[in-house]
From TrEMBL:
This is C2H2-type domain-containing protein. One of its GO terms (molecular function) is DNA-binding transcription factor activity, RNA polymerase II-specific. It is found in: Nucleus. Keywords: DNA-binding, Metal-binding, Nucleus, Repeat, Transcription, Transcription regulation, Zinc, Zinc-finger. Residues 8-24 have a biased composition (Basic and acidic residues). InterPro entries: Znf_C2H2_sf (IPR036236), Znf_C2H2_type (IPR013087). Residues 1-93, 123-142 are annotated as: Disordered. SMART domains: ZnF_C2H2 (SM00355). May be involved in transcriptional regulation.
Length: 503
């Protein structure tokens, strides 16, 4: 052994190389075993042979050939870059198990973004990330020209043209174009809600839903309208809001052509054509077109009135009713009829009033074809066919519609909510008070078109008109004589002895 040379079978640190002492004649390793000292999981790159083979790669005066790496690294076929004089098959310290090295290197993020400093495990991930700074979208759809930063996003998009839905739910068979959408959908079957709010503990099936929900706690509204500056917690709400500026109504009804700004509005509208009422009350079975209407209705069973007026303490089961009521305190009537100038505190009241000008009667009874301008009047009329009186008085058992029950119960309580400011007289109904007040004011708003005579009440005018028309709507059942007034009929029936007992 030459001076300074290391014994065969030992590395520079004096460690024994596996298989290093298996030499044949003349101390040379048997043919084919020069690489046998390496574990099967390691394969030497081309040119990494015996010491003699390595020495042939040295340049003049023992210099190393150009291109030899001075630091160990993994090549395409294994570990490369031995230092000059390294024994054949030496495994660098810390790399005995090749399977651990890629995992080790994966944890290192050597590719750093010069724009934001974010680190990545390889240059391709960095290149993809940098497109978020440059705005580059190199992958273009040949169908519609839309561009994407990643080829995987383009592949997903192209399924919208082909209709391909390769990801199918094993529970219900529903198919999706993206695997992520399938995963989200499957939570509807499992009930899984993996995203929990740290503030209130509420759970969500989608991370995006949690992000939106958290803005309820933070008050964050990161999406502004470019037209008016109004801010929103969700980007989709900005898109919807902008349609108020543009007037765009992209969702058209295929039945009547009416267009809507929101798809949800179209869905609700279409139920007017189909008659679908998917939301049913568990208490009475009544069904509704919208879930909000069901919630509102359920408060009639529970007696819940969560919206209370701070001025008078009156409670309401709808927030909109409270807002309308508060206008009675302020005297506010913001809705004005463009035809006659009459003002209303509620938009629905203006809508109903305008039908007196247009003659519109949109609510038609399917039984008798009678039409109505107000939905509540139509609903009351329908009960004449069905005989339905769903609200019973707890005092006497008499059945009524809801509005009439409230009125009837005042008979038992003696309550007279409506009081005359002039004389203090109380009335059960508001229109009775209105009629009474004309005694004090002398107002006679109902005028006969035939003779000009005026009346304080509509019923007085109706009775008077029979003088001109000759109408006698009250017949006697005994002699078929007819009368213009019900009181006249009652007086006449006494001549027949109606209402008297037999001897």
């Amino acid at each position: 052994m030459e001076p300074g040379a290391e014994p065969r079978g030992l590395d520079r640190q004096g460690r024994k190389i596996p298989g290093g002492d298996r030499t044949g004649e003349g101390g040379a390793a048997p043919a084919g075993e020069a690489r046998g000292c390496i574990t099967p999981s390691l394969s030497l790159p081309a040119g990494a042979g015996t010491e003699e083979e390595n020495s042939q790669q040295k340049g003049p005066a023992g210099t190393e050939s150009p291109g030899r790496s001075q630091s160990p690294a993994w090549g395409d076929t294994g570990w490369v870059g031995q230092q000059q004089g390294d024994p054949v098959g030496e495994i660098p310290e810390g790399a005995e198990d090749r399977e651990l090295l890629p995992k080790h290197l994966k944890g290192q993020k050597s590719a750093i973004c010069p724009d934001c400093g974010k680190s990545f495990g390889n240059s391709s991930h960095l290149a993809r990330h940098r497109r978020t700074h440059t705005g580059e979208k190199p992958y273009t759809c040949p169908e519609c020209g839309k561009s994407y930063r990643q080829d995987s996003h383009l592949a997903q998009h192209r399924r919208s043209h082909t209709g391909e839905r390769p990801y199918k739910c094993t529970e219900c068979g529903k198919a999706f174009s993206q695997s992520s959408n399938l995963i989200i959908h499957q939570r509807t079957h499992t009930g899984e809600r993996p995203y929990t709010c740290g503030e209130c503990g509420r759970s969500f099936g989608h991370s995006s839903d949690l992000a939106q929900h958290r803005r309820v706690h933070t008050g964050e509204k990161p999406f502004p309208c470019p037209q008016c500056g109004k801010r929103f917690a969700q980007s989709s709400k900005v898109t919807q809001h902008q349609r108020f500026h543009t007037g765009e109504r992209p969702f058209g009804c295929p039945d009547c052509g009416k267009a809507f700004r929101l798809s949800a509005d179209l869905l609700r509208h279409r139920r007017t054509h189909t008659g679908e009422k998917p939301y049913g009350c568990a208490e009475c079975g009544k069904r509704f077109v919208e879930s909000s209407h069901l919630i509102r209705h359920q408060r009639t069973h529970m007696g819940e009135r969560p919206y209370r007026c701070p001025q008078c303490g009156k409670g309401f089961n709808q927030s909109s009713n409270l807002l309308q009521h508060q206008r009675t305190h302020r005297g506010e009537r913001p809705y004005i009829c463009s035809d006659c100038g009459k003002a209303f505190g509620v938009s629905s009241a203006l809508l109903q009033h305008r039908r007196t000008h247009t003659g519109e009667r949109p609510y038609r009874c399917p039984q008798c074809s009678k039409s109505f301008s107000v939905s509540s009047t139509y609903n009351i009329h329908r009960r004449t066919h069905t005989g339905l009186k769903p609200y019973a008085c707890t005092d006497c058992g008499k059945a009524f519609s809801r509005k009439n029950l409230t009125r009837h119960q005042r008979v038992h309580t003696g309550e007279k909510l409506h009081r005359c400011a002039e004389c203090g007289k109380g009335f059960v109904r508001l229109h009775h008070l209105t009629s009474h007040q004309r005694i004090h004011t002398g107002e006679r708003p109902y005028c006969c078109t035939e003779c000009g005579k005026r009346f304080t009440q509509l019923s007085g005018l109706t009775t008077h008109l029979r003088i001109h028309t000759g109408e006698r709507p009250y017949p006697c059942t005994q002699c078929e004589k007819r009368f213009a007034h019900s009181l006249s009929l009652a007086k006449h029936q006494r001549t027949h002895g109606a209402g008297t007992s037999d001897p």
